[in-house]
Amino acid sequence: MNSSLDEARRVFKVAPFITALGCQLDKLEAGVCHSHIVLQEMHQQQDGFVHAGVQATLADHTAGTAAVTLIEQGQRVLTAEFKINLLRAAKGSALVCHSTILKPGRMLIIAESEVYARQADNSLVLVSKATVTLAVTNK
Amino acid sequence: MNSSLDEARRVFKVAPFITALGCQLDKLEAGVCHSHIVLQEMHQQQDGFVHAGVQATLADHTAGTAAVTLIEQGQRVLTAEFKINLLRAAKGSALVCHSTILKPGRMLIIAESEVYARQADNSLVLVSKATVTLAVTNK
Amino acid sequence: MNSSLDEARRVFKVAPFITALGCQLDKLEAGVCHSHIVLQEMHQQQDGFVHAGVQATLADHTAGTAAVTLIEQGQRVLTAEFKINLLRAAKGSALVCHSTILKPGRMLIIAESEVYARQADNSLVLVSKATVTLAVTNK
Amino acid sequence: MNSSLDEARRVFKVAPFITALGCQLDKLEAGVCHSHIVLQEMHQQQDGFVHAGVQATLADHTAGTAAVTLIEQGQRVLTAEFKINLLRAAKGSALVCHSTILKPGRMLIIAESEVYARQADNSLVLVSKATVTLAVTNK
């Protein structure tokens, strides 16, 4: 039984905006979180590509969940800032996100998220990469 | 008649993800775009605050629309990267975004977005600030 | 007598790298710091423009000094992260930096730095803009 | 004979600010650049750690040199923006930087730089990580 993983699982799923976007949790271990979104028309920007805001949301939330696996009971994380590079116009059947912790810490946790677009042949193409700074605070 | 403003108005509204989030256009002039979202439960993260992804989406899309007011016919903009600082846990009746152009350019346009949360007394509190780099390409 | 301003003045001047670059303090008040560098060949990159690293150093250090004006005795600030947009190839007789605090805080202070190049006619052209996140810790 | 590698080697070494800081080129191949600085007192900030500006300069310049290995004759790169996370207070005998290309492109090249501090036992500790956006232009 691991209460940090349980709390991370709860945090990932309970956020209404994450449910609204259809984000789903794929993998969770200490310092690691994988997730995905099955892409629909609602996720698009004006030219039919996946909106940067969708990629940013998945990158931020998956990073935050990876951070929650490392905090203590009674603590929570809030995103202090993030930066995302949109590397390619994103299209595909799903958006897949892999987040890992670059630097754990008592006050600040730094995470990286790689966002991939699943292609017709099932391959994953890297479409964006984010660095996320999370502040650890008491609930 | 100004075709750049018309195109910016179209770009703001036609993006399905922007409609899904309830983003609305408030003001548009050369190099300036204002917008807002009436906040609902769907915009929240796990602790009841506005999700960083909602703030990022509004900051990015409003910045992009401000950039579209400056491009020529047959061109479009794509976000190359952005960075957002979440300054305070955001709560309120609406999220308001003001975007301006820091540096116009033929290849790259740099915009800044300030995101405010409207409080019960109608005042606006700055909750996040983003810098957005937009790449100008031919359609 | 204001010990925070005295400490900020000390921090600005005592850093060996800042002395090596010729950075000078121009103005200091609560939450504000201005500085400049008289430009020499040593500040250039390969094409004769001011190196991005010089602009970043001045932007970071001036922001940090502005933050020090707001902390308590026995505390210090360390840069957690910064992001800088180089808006134009920078040339001129001097680099001038204006830093202000976007958001004070007990744990994190967010500052912005605007870097200008002084032209032959003495006018200032904005060449870069940075957002700096500073962590406040006990000495 | 590879003119892009020759040009990258030239760009790394010819920049006066890079010489002034003592940056040295260690490895160069298509899309990859490694460099280091032997640390001296001049590289320190006010508390005796390596100044963020030194880390940023090495991260930016090594990333730019990695990008130059990928461009065509008659082109050059200029840093459009970068973001750096300072992960730990940096101390040691040398600063070592490894830069790789995250995404090549005709207009924009995105690079990542990892900066390490060499410890007394010769091990390398990651002290900062940067993402650098480089604009490709004609000379």
TrEMBL record, chains A, B, C, D:
It catalyses: a fatty acyl-CoA + H2O = a fatty acid + CoA + H(+); a medium-chain fatty acyl-CoA + H2O = a medium-chain fatty acid + CoA + H(+); a long-chain fatty acyl-CoA + H2O = a long-chain fatty acid + CoA + H(+). Residues 48-119 form the Thioesterase domain. GO terms for molecular function: fatty acyl-CoA hydrolase activity. The keyword Isomerase does not apply. Its EC number is 3.1.2.20. Signal peptide: none annotated. It comes from the Bacteria. SUPFAM superfamilies: Thioesterase/thiol ester dehydrase-isomerase (SSF54637). Keywords: Hydrolase. CDD domains: PaaI_thioesterase. Belongs to the YigI thioesterase family. PANTHER family: 1,4-DIHYDROXY-2-NAPHTHOYL-COA THIOESTERASE 1, MEDIUM_LONG-CHAIN ACYL-COA THIOESTERASE YIGI. This is Medium/long-chain acyl-CoA thioesterase YigI. It comes from Neptunomonas qingdaonensis.
